[in-house]
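In practice, a research group might receive sequence data for several interacting partners and want a quick structural hypothesis before committing to experiments. The following worked case mirrors that situation: the sequences arrive first, and a predicted assembly follows.
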Amino acid sequence: MAFSAEQLERYSRHFVLKEIGYAGQKKLAAAKVLVIGAGGLGSPSLYYLAAAGIGTVGVADFDCVELSNLQRQIIHRTASVGTPKVASARDAIHALNPDVNVQTHDLWLTADNIAEVIAPYDFVIEATDSFESKLLVNDACVLGKKPFSHGGMVQMQGQTLTWIPGEGGPCFRCIAGDAPDRSQVFTCSQVGVLGAALGILGSIQATEAIKYLLEKGDLLTGRMLFVDALSMTFTEAGIPNRNPACRVCGEHADITDLPANRDDYTPKDCSI
Amino acid sequence: MNIREMDFIEFMDDHYADESTLLLDVRDESLFQRGTIPGAVNVPLARIRELYALPREKTVYVFCQSDVVSREVTEILSDAGYDAVNLQGGYRQFLRDLANGEFDHLHLF
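A structural hypothesis for the assembly, expressed as tokens:
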């Protein structure tokens, strides 16, 4: 039997949901999803992946919990301030669903280690806080043929898209290009961000991961979803095809080896 | 997973009265109380854990209001090693067949 009596009760609302059912729940139990960034976007994702019964949830974050995180990073708590985020996240996940196998990656992801970290996973949720990190994850997933969800938010506005290998759709780099000069970028510590708005976007990312695993519904591939929580409007930009000039997935891609391009992903000091 | 299925006519004629048959109604308790097939036991989703407490030596015939939930339960039971069969069309189909006189010879009511 795939599930214990207790798990039958835990997932009973999935068994009767026609998009999931018993067969779908078994798929989720066999799946491995990595969340890169246990912060504002990562928190709701981690919770909902755990609640849904994803078999293995990976969490990658090098940082420790700070008090100012708790305004939005709901996977952590006051008692975990000062401790590594991955451990704090693991504890929260297990309190919600002890059946989840949590793999912690307490490290700074770089061009040299990211390929190995993402390799075992079926889907990656990018929930980082800098353009450089977003491009690193993007490029690693494209080169590693790893399905992933890109997401980013500041203040009350954010965006997300999903990339699946082999579909010819745009990756994040197709749309964003190289990281802008840091003087042009506003970070959350500079301009702020609303926790609940991050909850909306992070939940969308977790939903995309779950839909991908179930092979149900329509993913945010070939379209970027923009969320403006202030006006509560959701708009889409349809971008059906990859950008032929994209440096990692375009026709003459020059990014073919991450370590060789490590300067493109220069780490930032300030985290949000 | 492919589950075993059967229509009510075959079930009622050939298996309903068997010693080894367990008839399982997985609808909510309120629906079960309102009316069910005589002899059925009720394990609603609210008590889904109790599925594994069902006797393993019986063949479990599962029905719900239509089909949807009973198919999932049949799959759960089959996966757990039970001999389980989904009754097609559910309680609604049973009532239709009953009204059509299909079970008159069984003198159920």
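Before designing any experiment, note the following. The radius of gyration of chain B is 13 Å. The first helix of chain B runs from residue 8 to 14.
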